Amino acid sequence: MENLARVKEETNTIKQLLVFNNDKAQLPIVKLTGLNIASVGLGFQYTSVFDSIANKFTKVEQLAKSYNSESISSLNLLNDDLKLYNCVILKTSKPLSKGLVALVTELEKTKQVILVLNGTYQKSGFSTFRSPVIISPTNSAIGASCLAQFIFGAIVTNGKAIRLKYSVPEEVGINSDRS
Q1: Which of 83, 91, 132, 142 is exposed most, by the fewest CB atoms within 10 A?
Q2: Which pTM does this prediction carry?
Q3: For 128-138, what is the mean pLDDT?
């Protein structure tokens, strides 16, 4: 029963995923070779779940420092810490601060940036970004898992998946309670 509930929540989460600024088809990430990916949680509750799933597809460095998206000095430190990466995944459940918007705009000049958001956001807030923005209104571990799998092409909202999805047996009609 627990796995059936998980499948239902995954299905609902996938239906609600919103993607903006993906005109250049940067998502899903198809070519993983040559990418040096950093994942940064800025008030994203399920960052460990997201990063765990992301690392099933390729090496993703989780920057463990606690950065404050409201503090310019903290965001400057983050910008310095990201110098060695050519792809950055920024995750937050908080409103986008002016400092964070400025950081994304700065990072876009030299890196592939993916902004991952949990909660409710206004589309107009992303008009200054060139980078893809993915929003899941589902703030849960399953929502975080779906977001990571979407980025790497295991979950799609249209078209065909390019990688295998991580899920439970019940999704394909197998009852895991039976031995």
Answers
A1: 83
A2: 0.90
A3: 92
